[in-house]
């Protein structure tokens, strides 16, 4: 992502504040410290998959995502929410509730989102770790390609707003 940003003329620095195995609850607990430590212009929020794999109630997951987004936006950071799906063996009701959380949070808090950022990866064994759930290193360029349109649109929107604010337009 850092190379793509540079190639596209952005001066942002990428900071990966993720923790392997993190849940939305952990993210919600850490968001204030991360905002203080990094003062981000943009947060790419990809949490929830581990909540789903653990069967965490979707209402709790939604509340945690809402907290993260609300805190981030309060500092002026833009947010892009990356939606995820869970394996079908969790049942149709839980799966539908789980997937709708991302749509609801994005709509309620006015953030850009991607419905399924693992599109083209989730069922490709060559792009998954041995657990057949998590993407491997080879999948990373595809993940960026999936997310880039929303990321660049969000950065451009922020850039335009900053220009208007600075120049009084």
Question: Can you tell me about this structure?
Answer:
By secondary structure, the protein is mainly alpha-helical. It has a single domain (2-167), classed as Rossmann fold (3-Layer(aba) Sandwich). The protein is built from six helices and three strands. It has helices at residues 2-7, 24-38, 49-53, 58-74, 92-109, 140-167, and strands at residues 42-45, 78-82, 112-114. The model has no long low-confidence stretch (mean pLDDT 92).
What's the SSE blueprint?
Blueprint: H1 2-7, H2 24-38, E1 42-45, H3 49-53, H4 58-74, E2 78-82, H5 92-109, E3 112-114, H6 140-167
Parallel strand pairs: 1-2, 2-3
Class from secondary-structure proportions: mainly alpha
SS element count, helices: 6
> What is the overall pLDDT average?
92
CATH class: Alpha Beta
| Count of domains | 1
CATH architecture: 3-Layer(aba) Sandwich
Short summary:
With about 170 residues, the protein is mainly alpha-helical.
Question: Main attributes?
Answer:
Rossmann fold, three-stranded parallel β-sheet, 169 residues, 6 helices
